[in-house]
Amino acid sequence: MSAAADRPRVALTMGDVAGIGPEVIARAWSDPVLHRLCAPLVIGDPGVMRRAIALVGATAEVATISDPGEAEPHAERIPCLTPPALLKAGTLADVLAGRVDRRAGFAAHEFLNLAIDDALGGRIDAIVTLPLNKESLRLAGVRHPGHTEILAERCGVKEHAMMLFLASSKGEENGEQHTRGRPGLGVVHVTLHVALRQVFDLLTTDAVAEKIRLADRAMRPLTRGQAPRVAASSLNPHAGENGLFGDEEIRIIAPAVKRTRGEGIDVHGPFPNDTLYPKALAGAYDAVVAMYHDQGHIALKTAGFRRAVNVTLGLPIIRTSVAHGTAFDIAWKGLADPSSLIEAVRVAARLAAARYPTGSPP
User: Fold this and answer.
1) Which long-range contacts (CB under 8 A, 24 or more apart) does 200-204 make?
2) Is the CB of residue 336 less than 8 Å from the CB of residue 24?
3) Which residue from 10, 22, 33, 296 has the fewest beta carbons nearer than 10 Å?
4) Would you say 127 and 11 are in contact if contact means Cβ atoms under 8 Å apart?
5) Could you tell me the pTM of the whole model?
6) Percent of residues, the chain, with pLDDT higher than 70
C-alpha cells in the first residue's frame, strides 16, 4: 500500500457539488472510524469543501495539494486535490444547491477521471465516490450515464459489473464489522442503466455466466478465500413456471448456471425472486446475480439503505461508492447522513487488504 503505517490511501471524489456529496465528506471527516480505516484525501474543489465544513460546524482546515503523496490527513486537516481542468475553469462557488448544472456535471467527471488516473498510477489504493447527477453529466457533454461506465472505459475493460453489497450486521467487534462468519450479501447485475424494455435483448447466456464469474471473484476477498455461495435470480414471475410465464430461465439463465457450475463455482438457480432474497439476506447465499437494476437494488436498499455500498467489479483498481444519490431535495441544508460513506470506505479497505496483503488496513 502507498499510505503510511497500515492504512490504505483512499481518495474520496466529491461528486456533484450541487448535491449532498461535499456535506457527507465533511460530516464523515470528523468520525474517527474513517481515519482508522484509511488515510483519506478529497478529490474536489477546496472552496466547496470549505463551505461544507462551515455548514456542518466543523473546524477542519482544507489544505490544497498537487499530488496524493503530499496528503497528510487527520481529523483537523483535509487534503484536497483539484483536477487541472478545474483550476483553469474557475470556481464552482455560484453553482446553486439542488439544481442541475452543466458545470457541476463537468466537475464531477473531472474529479472521477483524476481519481482513476491516480489509482491506475499507484498513487492511491482505492477510490470511494460520492454521487453525481446523470442529467448534469449529460449537459456537460458526457455520454456515459454514470460512474460504472466511465470507470470501465477509462480503465480499458469490457467485462465489468456493479455489485451492491450489504455488510452483515452480525459479528461486530470493536466497531469493525464482518470479522467472523458471513460477511454480507452482494448483488451483481447482468444489466444496469438501461430501459427495462432493453433487458430482454441484452440478456444472454454468456452475459449471465460472465456476471456469475464476477460475483464469485468479487466475494472471495470478503469470504476470506472460501468459495462464495452464489444464486441466480429468475427474470419472470415464479421463475417462469416451466415456460408458462416466459422461457428465459430455461433458454438463458439455467444454461449459464450449469456452465459456471462446471467451472467449479458454487452457483445455484434460477430462483423466484420473491423467495430468493429473504433466504439470501438470511444467510443462505453470499451473492445473488440479478437480471436487471431494480431487481437487486430494491431488495438490498429496503434491507439496509444506510449500510449498502456499490462496488465496481472487473476493474484493475478498487472503487466503491455510497448507495444513495445526490439528494437534491436536502442538499446544503445540513441534513445529510455520512453512514453510507463510512461503509463504502470500510469495504474499500477490506478489498485493499486482500489486494495488497502487506500493510493491511484494519
Assistant:
1) 200/248, 203/235, 203/248, 203/252, 203/291, 204/252
2) yes
3) 33
4) yes
5) 0.83
6) 92
